């Protein structure tokens, strides 16, 4: 890895961050707070929330097997993705490299930040070729984006190929593990000590069942996390979200139970789906969804919508022609989908 200073935008490296009232006062217990122009009434919502979310991070660190200083919390993973661009990529000059197909937010954030986005196709079975990816990088490539298990394909990328990318690339490698709770593989957040150039993303939106509270996590070296903290909005995680996260972390065994239930359900739905007349191929998955190639994805998608059932139509995505992405729901929801597809008669749709 290049020295961090060479990877960070000069204005960000030199930035003196906003210092909030709650940053400046951190010490012995106080009882009179006249420092932040808050209203003294309407507790507890009158007070600004903890800007660095100490309570959440203290509970999260042992669960994720990292230190609190290696955690950034954002308004969804999307905030972390956007901050990666704002910290490392000079608009109009730098570029990033990513696999395709993959999660759409990397490209949207690149476009918003006016950063060139270079995508490199996976193979027909959605496998990563490290050589091909690295060949797309040049002296202005600051970041490589990998997503494993990948969205929308569902599969884990080969670990050896990921490691090749991390070891050979001189910049930052973002590894989005939004779905790693559903995968049997060792997550990359456990490799922070070995690889100082990785940023691993997790989220409360999937296995943790908290998409509504908008809470994403980034795990990286203390030096990289310090940069995130410098650039983020001072109070980026509100009090309600921090409180709900703490409550969820206390209930984390529910999460394990949900994951086990969803994995069992996934196997059943996938084998039933594979038997459907409309199904050409169900792709293997390590996530809480699967991708399937069907006969006439657009017509089937419309038919399902008319029946009040929404899946994701990915048929316009590269390598995903005629593919639908199906999230694993409750047994009842999944059976509704399967029943509707069993009574689908393509010819009637025309
Ligand atoms: C769903 C998803 C996320 C989660 O984003 P949030 O902003 O945390 O809700 C991140 N990455 C991928 C690949 C996803 O599919």
Care to describe what's here?
The protein has 350 residues and is α/β, with parallel strands linked by helices. The protein has helices at 4-7, 10-14, 21-24, 54-64, 77-88, 105-112, 130-135, 159-168, 222-231, 239-250, 252-274, 297-306, 331-342, 346-349; strands spanning 71-74, 95-100, 116-121, 141-147, 172-176, 198-203, 216-219, 279-282, 289-294, 312-313, 323-327. Strands 1-7-6-5-4-2-3 form a seven-stranded mixed sheet, sandwiched between helices. It has a four-stranded antiparallel sheet with strand order 8-9-11-10, with helices on one face. Strand 2 (95-100), helix 6 and strand 3 (116-121) form a beta-alpha-beta unit. 38% of the residues are buried. It binds pyridoxal-5'-phosphate.
Notable characteristics:
single chain, 350 residues, alpha/beta, seven-stranded mixed sheet, four-stranded antiparallel sheet, 11 strands, 37% helix, binds pyridoxal-5'-phosphate
Instruction: Characterize the biggest β-sheet.
Output: 7 strands, mixed
Ligands and ions found: pyridoxal-5'-phosphate
The helix content, as a percent range, equals: 25-40%
Overall, the morphology is globular
DSSP E strands, number: 11
Unreliable stretches, pLDDT < 50, 5 or more residues? none
Report strand order across the widest sheet.
1-7-6-5-4-2-3
Count of separate DSSP helical elements: 14
Series of H and E elements? HHHHEHEHEHEHEEEHHHEEHEEHH
Q: Briefly, what is this?
A:
The protein has 14 helices and eleven strands. By secondary structure, the chain is α/β, with parallel strands linked by helices.
């Amino acid at each position: 890895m290049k020295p961090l200073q060479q990877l960070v935008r000069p204005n960000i490296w030199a930035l003196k961050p906003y210092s909030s009232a709650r940053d400046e006062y951190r010490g012995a217990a106080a009882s009179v707070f006249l420092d932040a122009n808050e209203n003294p009434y309407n507790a507890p919502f009158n007070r600004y929330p903890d800007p660095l979310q100490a309570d959440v991070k203290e509970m999260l660190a042992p669960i994720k097997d990292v230190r609190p200083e290696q955690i950034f919390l954002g308004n969804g993973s999307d905030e972390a993705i956007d901050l990666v661009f704002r910290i490392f990529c000079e608009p109009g000059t730098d570029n990033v490299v990513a696999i395709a197909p993959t999660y759409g937010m990397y490209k949207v954030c690149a476009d918003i930040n006016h950063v060139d986005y270079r995508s490199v196709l996976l193979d027909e079975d959605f496998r990563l070729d490290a050589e091909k990816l690295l060949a797309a990088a040049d002296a202005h490539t600051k970041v490589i984006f990998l997503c494993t298990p990948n969205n929308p394909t569902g599969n884990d990328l080969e670990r050896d190929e990921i490691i090749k990318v991390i070891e050979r690339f001189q910049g930052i490698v973002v590894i989005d593990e939004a779905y790693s709770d559903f995968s049997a593989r060792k997550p990359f957040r456990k490799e922070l000590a070995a690889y100082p150039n990785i940023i691993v993303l997790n989220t409360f939106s999937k296995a943790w069942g908290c998409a509504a509270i908008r809470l994403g996590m980034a795990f990286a070296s203390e030096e990289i996390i310090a940069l995130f903290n410098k650039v983020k909005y001072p109070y980026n995680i509100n009090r309600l979200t921090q409180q709900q996260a703490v409550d969820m972390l206390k209930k984390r065994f529910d999460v394990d139970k949900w994951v086990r239930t969803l994995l069992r359900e996934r196997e059943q739905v996938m084998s039933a789906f594979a038997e459907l007349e409309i199904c050409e191929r169900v792709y293997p998955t390590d996530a809480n969804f699967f991708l399937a190639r069907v006969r006439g994805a657009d017509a089937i998608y419309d038919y399902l919508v008319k029946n009040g059932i929404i899946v994701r139509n990915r048929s316009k995505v590269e390598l995903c022609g005629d593919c639908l992405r199906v999230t694993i729901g409750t047994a009842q929801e999944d059976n509704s989908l399967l029943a509707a597809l069993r009574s689908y008669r393509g010819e009637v749709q025309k």
